[in-house]
Amino acid sequence: MLRRVRQSLRQVLFLMARRPDLLCGAIVLSVLLVLAVKFTCSRAKNVVAAARPPVRFFSAEAPVVDLYLGQLDQVERLRSVAEVSLIFFYAPWCAHSMAAGQEVQQVAKKLAKQVQFVAINCWYSQGKCRRQTRFYQYPIIHLFYRRFGPIEYKGPFVAQYVESFILRVITPLTYLPSRATLEEFLSCHEPRVVGFFQFNSSPQPPGYITYLSSALQALRRDFRGVIRFGVVTNKQVAEAISLREDETVYLHRRFNSSLIFPRRERNFTSQAICSWVFEHRETVLQWLQPLGTKSRLLEQELTKGPALLLFLPHNPLGSKPNPILQQVADIAVRYHSCDNNNHSGLDKSFTSHSLCCQSVLLPESSTSVCEVCLSWSRPSLTSSSLSCSFPPTAQGGDGLQSYLRYCCLHQPPAPMSIKTATSVGCSNFLNSYSPFSQYSACCRKVEPQLNESQAKEGPDMQRVPLTPPSLSTPPSSVPQHRGDGITGLRCQTNRTLRFYVLDVALNWPLAVRLGATGNRTAPLHQEAGTPGDGSSNGLFAAIVNLKDEVHYVLHRSPAATLTESLEAFIRNFSAPYTLLQRHLVGEEDRKGGEQEDRHPDEHQQTSPRPLITELTTSSFLPSVMDLQKDVLLFYYTQWCGFCSVLNHIIIQLARLLQGNSTITVARVNVARNDLPWEFMVDHVPSILLFPRYRKHLSVKFPDDLPITLPNLLRFILQHSGSVHNTDKQVTSSVKADASGPGAILHAEFLSLQREVQALHHARERLSQQLAQLWRDNRRLTFDSRSLEVQNAELQRERQSLEEQHQEKSRQLGEAVRRLQELADTSESLLNENTLLRILLRALKDRTEAREQAEVERTEAEQKRSHMAS
Hints:
Layout: H1 2-18, H2 20-41, H3 43-46, E1 65-67, H4 73-80, E2 84-90, H5 95-111, E3 116-121, H6 128-132, E4 140-145, E5 148-152, H7 159-170, E6 173-175, H8 179-186, E7 192-196, H9 206-221, E8 228-232, H10 235-239, E9 248-252, E10 259-260, H11 270-280, E11 286-287, H12 297-302, E12 307-312, H13 323-336, E13 354-361, E14 368-376, H14 398-410, E15 427-429, E16 437-445, E17 462-463, E18 498-503, H15 508-514, E19 540-545, E20 550-553, H16 562-574, H17 587-590, H18 600-606, E21 613-615, H19 617-624, E22 630-636, H20 641-645, H21 647-656, E23 663-669, E24 686-690, E25 699-700, H22 709-719, H23 728-739, H24 741-868
Parallel strand pairs: 1-3, 2-3, 6-8, 7-8, 11-18, 12-18, 13-17, 21-23, 22-23
Antiparallel strand pairs: 2-4, 4-5, 7-9, 9-10, 12-19, 13-14, 14-16, 15-16, 19-20, 22-24, 24-25
Helix pairs in contact: 1-2, 1-24, 5-7, 9-11, 13-16, 23-24
Domain Thioredoxin: 49-175
Protein name: Thioredoxin domain-containing protein 11
Pfam families: Thioredoxin (PF00085), TXNDC11_2nd (PF26234)
């Protein structure tokens, strides 16, 4: 075989030596073949479909100049011919741009005569807008007022809000021609800035343009235009706010002194005026508009302290002021008004201010009686407008008793009758810090028989029982104070609130997450307060305390007005011991309140009992605190991996206890359902057992014990409740009086019988599971044996394959060696062939030279013979 290969190689080399053109042709064909293969394989990667040419984004009827080819150079030309211009940067594929384009088109149809609307495609790769601008999101709206701009619009892309912003840019200043308009302008709760410029000396004072630019700068920082700028040109009108010098900027403030821009300390520029206004403004009611994307705007505001979030319907284009917003603003202004709210001095007699008193008899002396009176901080209040409430210590607390003993026993009061009594032992008792009231104590000696004539006392003493208000009424609707009790509350409590207003139509999902129910209110085009806007139910209020991780929801009473409900809500939160109840948000609330809450008993009647009861915030207490059932509660979350591992154990336990009607296996997702603090756990997964008849003695599954099916059964049987564990003061005493001890024994016997039956059922199920496990173990044994036999066969096959592999490797090595020898031989043959060719060529040249010499000699001889003849 090797000899044939050598012969073939010699023939090929010989042909190539004789025909070199064949070698060149073979090389050319090989190169062409490689190029054809490469071109065929890479054709799909190199060919890309050309982008479609851009088309108009707005319709032809819309009064919008659509630069869909990205002609950025034309924007400057269009902007120069208009006083106010709106530039809409969009991407044609962006869904937000499509939605915002429809809103902008609506606004353009209304304001086309006043504003130049221009839209430009900033996504077209060949356009200048794509190459010269760097936008990270779309759409973008820029407004230009003459040469000032751009003013970027950062509000919601809703037609009413965009139109309101454009109108603010068109008229950034409010002209104030008279004192009446000036007073009306300054009466609003929002910050107000007034500029005084006289137009007598020149058509346009030099500082007026700067003041106008500062108003536009404020719109650049706040798209809502909360800070309004007014201008006064009449000197008599300016004197109403003590402005006498021309080109003066005045910042009106309610709670502190109003300010005048310090031109000697700061440069009179638009940026300096705008910064000065934002630094010294007073904000009592702040609009909040979450961006709807990932941002920390809401978190930054809530971390500042407790916040009162007010969701109300708002129409930015409303011709009339929103009545709900006016009421809320009035409450916020009075809440922040801290003047004329100081408490009465301690040197004044408490009897001139006290409205509610309670007599306390000291056990040390039968003639010493101390009267504890509640003195309100506002002396102008009347007794009819207050609801008296004493602390529990007034009924015999140690702190109050010790104070009264010291007051009455160490300071001898003068003997007196109840009609002409004047106490010398009066002082104030500070039971706890309260922004509303202080307690005072006066001691005197009276005759015991005079206690029967207490009803004859004057109207200044109102005897009330020491009981708190009923808790059945919602805490937010129980007014502790009426009238003007909220005025200055911000400076009387450490629990200061910040007021935030949100548009309920734009932030309805956030309101639902906080506890709002029902459907969202009327659309934006309806004015608040008009029929159909739900003005009576259009307000949702919640206090969020991020530090304490609680929030409270306002529950309005039908009989109370909005002002009364909000004031009571704020006062109850500001009290040292608030009566407000923490609002718990459950999984059904997160779904928007679409599903109605249903009691577990009703659920069992309408549908079969589930294997594991899934609890929510609303169904937690009725299910767990059921006295007739032992409840095994499993705390879990959807992101907990250990909880998922234990699911099959909980399911097996529920199947074992399925026939027992006295034991309920339940679980609750604590990540989606808020629970009362006393029912929370420090980690998940956790298992708690609430035994029947003694729910107050709940037991937690030991952390050091593995969670297995036998351990759970042992835990339930050890701590489950029975009839003899019932509350003797509530349940068993009533049953004992009604039926006697025989009924209790009979009930206990029935309970034990049911428990024995349940244990029998559990034992049968365990026996079946053990039998199944034994069968599975036997099957696994047979399978393991067969696997061992197969493994042995595989080992033998592996050894034979390894031997074959070694033999083949040896043969391949031998073949490689022979091929190497063949290559060496071929190379030597090639060298010999080359040498032979050289020799043949030399011989050929030598032969040709001889033949040429012979020919020349023959021709010379012929020539000589011819010449001789």
